[in-house]
Amino acid sequence: xxxASLIAQTITGxxxxxxxxxDHRLYVPAIYSPGTPAPLVLNLHGYTSxxxxxxxxxxxxxIADTANFIIVHPNGTMDGNGDRYWNTFGGSTxxxxxxxxxxxxxxxxxxxxxxxxxxxxxxxxxxFMSHDLACFRSxxxxxxxxxxxxxxxxxxxxxxxxxxxxxxxIHGTSDGTVPYNGNAAFVPVVDLMAHWAAVNSCEPTPVMTxxxxxVTTDGCTAEHYVYGDGDxxxxxxxxxxxxxxxxxxxxxxxxxxxxxxxxxxEIWRFFSRYRLSELQTGVGENAESIPFIVRENPSYDVFRLxxxxxxxxxxxxxxxxxxxxxxxxxxxxxxxxxxDKPGLYLVTVAQGxxxxxQRLVRL
Length: 363
Known about the structure:
This protein is α/β, with parallel strands linked by helices and 363 residues long. The protein has helices at residues 51-57, 61-67, 96-110, 125-136, 153-157, 189-199, 263-271, 276-281, and strands at 9-17, 20-28, 38-44, 70-74, 77-78, 84-85, 113-123, 143-147, 167-172, 207-211, 221-227, 236-242, 293-295, 302-306, 313-319, 324-330, 334-338, 343-351, 354-362.
């Protein structure tokens, strides 16, 4: 038998959270060394699936074996039909945000985790959950990825990410479960990308690059969209799978599955660029910022921006879906912004190469 330090380990664990027994699987690569901080990836299953299925379907283990990160595969709770799910639609009282936070704390108490490099990825309902973590647990998560997941509008409208949060979305245009163009429940992918581009102050128009059609028999192709130039070096990326269904690119085909790319490889490439502390403090290629203060925030109508001394500044206000609400220039030290409808808004003040974004809450 090989020494334990040379063997990858899959460890099962459980604990009670909010009166519910929650369980998970932890993958620890052979090259992990106690005392040396390792990144951690949350890998979340979809609705009706479970952590074992996700461990194999959206498989990061071969990548972790060489890149040296730990993977945790938690289980959601059971709904009334006996199917596992994550409470991202507000249909129950299960506190999955609290559970996943407690799970991070539990793992960190037993392993040497690099708190600067904690990421979340999910398939379908797990992708919804990853977006929720980016919005409501941004103090713990550096970046997220969603494969075939989206958000519901109330969650997106109340999103409270406290720092630029890099997001990768992978989604098929022929997805019949979570439609690419959205429906009465789910936000369209284009609107979802616009939201995160606005949160991160990225360029609103992405740069598109076709993914080489290496496997011409898989029934689909792919396009790669990058919303760049975000605060602290953050970007938003979309892999649009033309003709792709509700599937994980690079995995064993279940329906039309793109084979021109490996989603797990691309997601880790994306994650590995980001550190939480750099995103929180604005360190990065776009770290220059201009400070300003928002008076009366939240407000019922008017927000007063205190900008400092007189100077020419460009001011934009976008809603939670990234749509432009106001745009104007000012050379005064204080301006007023009026917002008609309740919700979350993002105001950006730019002066030369410097810019800063803050959230406005209209009651």
